[in-house]
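Whiteboard transcription, Tuesday session. T.W. wrote the structure tokens on the left side:
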């Protein structure tokens, strides 16, 4: 019987592991398919407190792991493939074969950004392609960038970037924006934003990093191909929280984020907690995920003590 099972090895999972080990809960953490989480696919992290000169995403996650292991967290390879939260102890199946019984479970499985599926997209990640304006916008000060998407987040990202970049193209597939009227107005009136309606991205180009995008605009059934010169290409077409296996038991919102009681990491099942991007459609920042991991571990400890 495990007292505290942590699923996921991003900032939320490792921070939960640090707090849970120091509270003597002997946590077991399963790393999942992406040990270290999303930050392992970025180059530089400049906004996590405590690193005045910035740090590479992988080095930062190595630090978090080392800190968790130092206090005794049992970090294991494995992916949670099923769960049974119908009764206590809660059960989680790892890699389709090993069943783990736990008194508390902290779910920290993150969310994955949606990409367009262009052949060059993955090649340029960290070299011009990003799915997070708050994280990477600073690198594009006084440069030209494009944002893909037509919803509220795309408009928000475009406005945020327009405060840093010299020009922002907003690439919109349809001939209208899906965003709320107020966001549409802000985008349309912004002097630094040019909206390209009816436009799709065909590919990206550049020697070592993104230097431009091949686009196609379709109007009245006629397709016109053209290129734009850009330094950054930001995806804002949504995220998919990694919550599928918990769906039969946990309350999720319409996008699949795990619902928690406001200001806590408590889910609808006592003893099951959700921390980080899997429960946060709003901020999706490493420091917020780490904070939520801390909260989840403290709540797990209090729950066990009750
Ligand atoms: C390219 C990029 C750059 C970014 N840059 C910054 C930045 O500069 N600053 C910043 O604050 N934020 C940045 N972010 C956002 C930041 O990475 C996330 O907010 C943060 O990583 C969320 O942490 P998390 O612990 O919730 O989840 P994640 O980091 O997403 O980790 C999820 C973990 O869960 C595991 N997992 C998933 N499913 C399972 C399963 N079924 N079983 C077991 N394990 C599972 C995965 O293997 C992974 O280890 C960036 C994101 C990206 C994609």
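and on the right, the sequence the group agreed on:
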């Amino acid at each position: 019987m495990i007292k505290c099972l942590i699923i996921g090895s991003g900032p939320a999972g490792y921070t939960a592991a640090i707090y849970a080990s120091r509270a003597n809960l002997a946590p077991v953490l399963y790393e999942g398919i992406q040990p270290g989480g999303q930050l392992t696919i970025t180059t530089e992290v400049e906004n996590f407190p405590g690193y005045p000169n910035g740090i590479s995403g992988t080095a930062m996650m190595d630090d978090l792991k080392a800190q968790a292991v130092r206090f005794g967290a049992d970090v294991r390879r494995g992916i949670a493939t099923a769960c049974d939260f119908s009764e206590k102890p809660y059960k989680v199946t790892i890699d389709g074969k090993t069943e783990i019984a736990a008194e508390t479970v902290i779910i920290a499985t993150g969310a994955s950004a949606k990409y367009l599926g262009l052949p060059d997209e993955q090649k340029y990640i960290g070299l011009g392609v990003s799915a997070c304006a708050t994280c990477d916008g600073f690198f594009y000060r006084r440069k030209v960038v494009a944002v893909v998407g037509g919803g509220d987040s795309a408009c928000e990202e475009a406005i945020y970037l327009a405060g840093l970049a010299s020009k922002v193209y907003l690439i919109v597939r349809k001939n209208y924006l899906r965003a709320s009227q107020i966001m549409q107005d802000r985008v349309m009136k912004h002097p630094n934003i040019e909206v390209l309606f009816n436009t799709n991205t065909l590919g990206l180009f550049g020697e070592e990093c993104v230097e431009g995008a091949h686009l196609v605009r379709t109007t009245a059934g006629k397709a016109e191909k053209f290129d734009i010169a850009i330094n950054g290409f930001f995806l804002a077409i949504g995220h998919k929280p990694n919550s599928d296996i918990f769906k039969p038991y946990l309350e999720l919102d319409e996008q699949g984020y795990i619902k928690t009681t406001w200001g806590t990491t408590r889910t609808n099942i006592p003893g099951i907690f959700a921390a980080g991007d899997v429960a946060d459609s709003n901020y999706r920042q490493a420091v917020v995920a780490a904070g939520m991991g801390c909260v989840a571990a403290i709540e797990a400890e209090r729950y066990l003590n009750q």
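Someone added at the bottom: Residues 12 and 291 are 7 Å apart (CA to CA).
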